[in-house]
């Protein structure tokens, strides 16, 4: 998979050099490039924002640098993702859909947002999705893009060593994950649930399922609807 990111804070994305995704990049499973939006400006001050038409607080990102950036990055197979609190909710199902794409482009807005015509223009050149991480406000799309890239990247075949771990994890079956334990069996007076030490695989599977259901009912009843 190819991933392009457009941002005014390219240094944010240095964390993608490490860990699982860093290895996926080294092995060529993921090809990732970060582009500084200011490199697509043409004025001396490398201006990326201006005051909003109609008035109001804050600044809006100007369309011209975005147009230049998108023109240099997009091709017919691209899908453009604009992280936005006004977008559709990004879920595990979204991550799964995006994991089979060839080319993801993340357009990270700052300030009060990007001139809406940029989204309109992008939609004439590629498929476009506005994606939100949840009902809270971030200062810009960078952290959201990073979360989406991690969620998608780990679903690409070969990125995770043991694919079984993808099958068993939270949200893959629509429920929260069961609790996990490792040695020692007793720690600071706290015990591992005895069933996990029983060697009885059927009983363990049943206990884990029950834990998943109990947790989901208690913490995220909305997932059961
Ligand atoms: Cl994707 N962007 C911003 N700026 N804030 C958010 C978000 C995205 N998702 C939730 N809050």
UniProtKB/TrEMBL annotation:
A single GO BP: tRNA N1-guanine methylation
Coiled-coil residues are none
Superkingdom of origin organism: Bacteria
**Which EC class, in a word?**
transferase
Q: Cytoplasm: present as a keyword of the record?
A: yes
* UniProt catalytic activity: guanosine(37) in tRNA + S-adenosyl-L-methionine = N(1)-methylguanosine(37) in tRNA + S-adenosyl-L-homocysteine + H(+)
Q: Could you tell me the EC number(s) of this protein? A: 2.1.1.228
Going by the UniProt record, its keywords in alphabetical order are:
Cytoplasm, Methyltransferase, S-adenosyl-L-methionine, Transferase, tRNA processing
Q: How does this polypeptide assemble, per the annotation? A: Homodimer.
Q: Which family does it belong to?
A: Belongs to the RNA methyltransferase TrmD family.
**What protein name is recorded for this chain?**
tRNA (guanine-N(1)-)-methyltransferase
- Source organism per entry reads Terrimesophilobacter mesophilus
What gene codes for this chain? trmD
